[in-house]
Amino acid sequence: MAQKRAVERFELNLEAYVATAGGIPKAKPQRLITWDVSMNGAYLSTRMPLPIGTKVKVDVILSLESLPPGQTRKALIKASGAVLSTDGDGMAIRFDDNSKFLPYSSDKLERV
Fold first, then answer.
1. Residue 1 carries which DSSP code?
2. Which residue, 21, 36, 41, 43, shows the most beta carbons closer than 10 Å to its own?
3. Within 13 Å and on the Cβ side, how many CA atoms surround 22?
4. Which domains does the chain have, with CATH numbers?
5. Could you read off the pLDDT tens digit of each residue along the chain, which spans 112 residues?
6. Dist. CA 14–CA 33, nearest whole Å
């Protein structure tokens, strides 16, 4: 039986940076690639997923190449949430209500 989701998921391979949050010792953010993204979360490809329940900060870079020259060609989704599930291919992260959609700037990326 196919799963019915509350929001649509998009199969997009996007650059993402994931860092632990919420009192967990911080390490350098992991550079990962999304498999799919929705308003509620993302599935990220990794061979070393974080433990289920780990609080994270996630930056996802969107390419907006179809915009006219002179306009910002990338956007940034800044989100926080927690690892919902893991498997041998990656981890699913559920975003909380603190997500933001911003014009891209490398200084806005999560740097720990």
1. -
2. 41
3. 10
4. 15-104 (2.30.110)
5. 456 667 788 888 899 999 998 666 666 788 999 999 988 999 999 999 999 999 999 999 887 766 566 655 678 889 999 999 999 999 999 999 888 877 766 665 554 3
6. 5
Q: Which residue bears the tokens 């998009």? A: 10
* Neighbouring residues of 69: CB distance < 8 A, sequence distance ≥ 6: none
Rounded CA gap, 51 and 5, in Å?
A: 24
Cβ 17 vs Cβ 30: under 8 Å: yes
The pTM of the full predicted model, rounded to 2 decimals, is: 0.77
d(CA 40, CA 45): 17
CA–CA separation, 7 and 1 (whole Å): 18
